[in-house]
Amino acid sequence: MGEAGDRAGVSAIRQFVTGAGMLGRGLGLVARSPRLLLLGMLPALISGLLYAAALITLIVFLPDLTRWLTGFAGGWPTGTRDLVRVLAGVAVVGVAGLLGVLTFTAVTLLVGDPFYEKISGLVEARFGGVPDEVETPWWRSLGRSLVDSVRLIALSVLFGVPLFALGFLPVVGQTVVPVLGAAVGGWLLAVELTGVPFQRRGRRLRDRRAALGAQRAMSLGFGVAVFLCFLIPLGAVLLMPAAVAGATLLARNALGHNTAATSVGPGRAGAGGAEMSTT
C-alpha cells in the first residue's frame, strides 16, 4: 500500500511538471510564427490596458477601502487596528488578482476569438489535425463561449469570496490562502483556455471538466504555471498566445490525441499566410 501510494505521488508530480511544461511548448510553437504571435498579443494588450487602469484605481483607493472594510476595528488599539487593515489590504489585492486573472482570460478570449482560433488550429494541424471535428456556425460557437465564460467567472467569484474571508486570518491568510488561490485559479484557467479545442470537437463545458479532471495533476500543472505567469506585469499580454497553444496540447492529451509532431505541417494558415513550422 505504501509503495503504491509513493508511486502514485511520484506519477502525480511528473504529470504536474509535464502540464507546466506545456506552457513552454506552447511558447515554442507560437514563437515560430512572429506575426501570429503579435496578432495573438493584440487582444490581450487591449484587455490588459483596461485591467491596468482598474488595478491602478484599486491601489489608489485601497486605503479608503480597507478602512471601510475594517470599520469594526476603529476603536481597537492602534497596532492591532493597523495590522487588521494591512491584512485586509493583502486579502483585497489577492482576491482582486485572482478574479482579475480569470476574468481577463475570459474577456481576452472573447475579444480575440478569431486570432486564438487560428493559433489553436495551427497547433492541431501540426500534431495530426482533428479527426472528430464538428462544424459549428460561428455565431453558435461565440454564444457557447460567452455562456461558458460567464459560468467560469461565476465559479471564480464563488471561490473568491471565501478565499477573501480567509485572507483576514493571520498567517493562514498570507500562506495557505495564496496557495489555494493559485490552485483554484490554475484549474479554472485550464478549463477556460481549453475551450476552443473542445468546442471544435462539439464538446461542452461539462465534457471539458470531465476530460481534464481525469488528468487533474497535469491540468493543474498547466493552469498553475499560466496563473503565476499571468500575475507578472505584462505576463498575460505576452504569454496569452502561448497559453492558447499550450492549452490545445493539454486538450489533445486529455482526449487521447497525438501530441508528438507529425511529419506533415499545416502549411499556410489562410489569411495573413502565418505558418507554424514542423521542424
UniProtKB/TrEMBL annotation:
Keywords: Amino-acid biosynthesis, Cell inner membrane, Cell membrane, Membrane, Sulfate transport, Transmembrane, Transmembrane helix, Transport
Transmembrane segments: 36-63, 83-111, 150-169, 175-196, 217-240
Keyword Transmembrane helix among record annotations: yes
Main location as per UniProt: membrane
The species this protein was found in: Mangrovihabitans endophyticus
Location(s), subcellular: Membrane
GO-annotated molecular function: high-affinity sulfate:proton symporter activity
Lineage per the UniProt record: Bacteria, Bacillati, Actinomycetota, Actinomycetes, Micromonosporales
Cellular compartments per GO CC: plasma membrane
Stored InterPro entries: CysZ-like, CysZ/EI24
Membrane topology: Multi-pass membrane protein
Protein's UniProt name: Membrane protein
One record GO biological process: sulfate assimilation
Keyword ATP-binding among UniProt keywords: no
